[in-house]
Design a protein that fits this description.
Layout lengths: L2 H22 L5 H4 L8 H29 L1 H21 L3 H13 L3 H11 L2 H56 L16 H8 L2 H31 L7 H25 L3 H22 L3 H29 L5 H29 L2 H19 L8 E7 L8 H9 L4 E7 L4 E7 L5 H9 L3
Antiparallel strand pairs: 1-3, 2-3
Length: 452
């Protein structure tokens, strides 16, 4: 990446991470402090936890489309403004209904798709995959940090203090956007980072992509439901004060992150992604079942959390990578748009179901719910195809006439190692799916030389 691209990517990663930090901070503490709100119940607490996921799922696509017309930075600023207003509404509310509305407003600033589009405007095709990986890493780090900071801030300032803190993060994001995020010279129409209606049905009918979409839905359903039960188990069964919960989350997240790295390497380097993926789902299932049996003993409960988050981190890192590999050439933006919608909707459903089960049963009922979802996911995922070693590639042309389209497509398709070609003459771009290690680069360069 060039120096300007590095600055752009780092500034966008920090902006994204600060916003997600604000959304995630309430997860480990809301069920503890939300009971003090007027009108609260277990079901409404679950709705409040998951409300941001519903609005994120609803507004992700509209925000991306509006940014094409009004500009990326304007829509991002508007999204951060909604996030700020939602944080203030939640901070000033004394009832559970006010907090639910605030959480919904927080999520309504659904800027993820706009950030990805802005990323494509500010980086070259060659740097884009690495840039998206950096953004994804920043989200993972923000989630881990949120689990530690949330209980610390909550113990000092209470639930309202957490929302005031997220309001400050929103103001920081607006300041950072204005002064440090570059203005794109023009909006790119890169189909690898944007959602296109014409590709939507192809993505929705793609059997393997649907498996992954259902997978991320299940993963975040389980995560949100889990955080309705785990804090209660730590407080009531292990007798650990809420202000000490951050120590559990810190040790679990750090150790589980390093524990999952070897499995990522095995899956990617040894082409064993399917067995590693299924193993991780089984580990989620086993950990979920063990929570009820270990919630009276700190060490064993900690180990259950450790294995659960080892599997969670592994799946959270693997799923977007698999979507990128499996999706049709030139459809990554559309595939990731559907994927993100399923992810956020899963968080909403997990909050609602988790709250309902907790109100009818207890923490053990929530753990059983998570186990049932994991079992269903495993049975559904067993039929997945073993992902190939395909990767995406984007080729640009200085000039491209419509009359040349079929000829170029045929010649590119005949290159050794090229599996799929999508040519977009109006954008002067070709999107390729190629097999790592089998691409005949010399032959590809020879074809491209003819059209430069």
């Amino acid at each position: 990446m060039t120096a300007s691209e590095k600055r752009s990517v780092i500034s966008l990663a920090l902006l994204y991470a600060s916003r997600m930090l604000g959304l995630f901070m309430v997860l480990p503490v809301f069920v503890l402090y939300g009971q003090e709100l007027a009108g609260s119940s277990e079901i409404l607490i679950g709705v409040a936890i998951g409300a941001y996921g519903l609005s994120q799922a609803l507004f992700q696509v509209p925000f991306g489309a509006l940014s094409d017309r009004f500009g990326r930075k304007k829509l991002i600023f508007f999204g951060l403004l909604l996030f700020l207003i939602g944080s203030l509404v939640a901070a000033l509310s004394t009832t559970i209904y006010g907090v639910i509305f605030g959480r919904f407003l927080q999520g309504a600033g659904a800027i993820a798709s706009v950030l990805m589009a802005l990323l494509s405007d500010l980086t070259s095709e060659e740097s884009r995959t690495k840039s998206m990986a950096i953004i994804g890493m920043s989200i993972g780090v923000s989630f881990s940090v949120a689990l530690v900071i949330g209980p610390l801030v909550g113990s000092v300032l209470g639930l309202q203090g957490i929302f005031w803190f997220t309001a400050v993060l929103a103001l920081f994001g607006m300041f950072w956007l204005y002064f440090f995020v570059p203005n794109p010279v023009q909006s790119a129409s890169d189909r690898n980072t944007r959602l296109f209606k014409s590709q939507l049905m192809d993505v929705l009918k793609h059997k393997e992509l649907v498996r992954l979409d259902i997978g991320i839905f299940a993963l975040h359903l389980c995560l949100t439901a889990l955080f309705i039960a785990v804090p209660m188990s730590l407080l009531n069964k292990i007798n650990m004060p809420g202000e000490d919960h951050w120590l559990v989350y810190l040790t679990v997240m750090v150790t589980s992150f390093f524990a999952m790295v070897p499995f990522i390497i095995i899956g990617e380097k040894k082409q064993k992604m399917k067995p590693v993926f299924l193993f991780a789902i089984l580990l989620l299932l086993a950990s979920s079942l063990s929570f009820s049996l270990t919630q009276n003993q700190f060490l064993y409960f900690w180990l259950s959390l450790f294995f659960y988050f080892m599997a969670f981190n592994l799946l959270e890192a693997s799923l977007p990578s698999l979507v990128s590999k499996i999706c049709p050439a030139g459809s990554k933006g559309t595939a990731m748009g559907v994927y993100s919608t399923c992810q956020f909707f899963g968080a909403f459903v997990g909050g609602v179901l988790g709250g309902w089960v907790l109100s009818s049963y207890d923490e053990s009922g929530v753990y059983l719910l998570v186990s049932i979802v994991c079992l269903g996911w495993f049975l559904f995922a067993r039929g997945m195809a073993n992902p190939s070693s395909e990767t995406g590639m984007t080729l640009s042309f200085s000039a491209l006439a419509d009359s040349q389209a079929q000829e170029i497509t045929d010649r590119l398709s005949s290159v050794g190692g090229v599996e799929e070609v999508v040519l977009v003459p109006e954008d002067k771009v070709a999107y390729l799916k190629v097999i790592k290690g089998k691409l005949n680069q010399q032959e590809l360069d020879s074809v491209m030389e003819c059209y430069r």
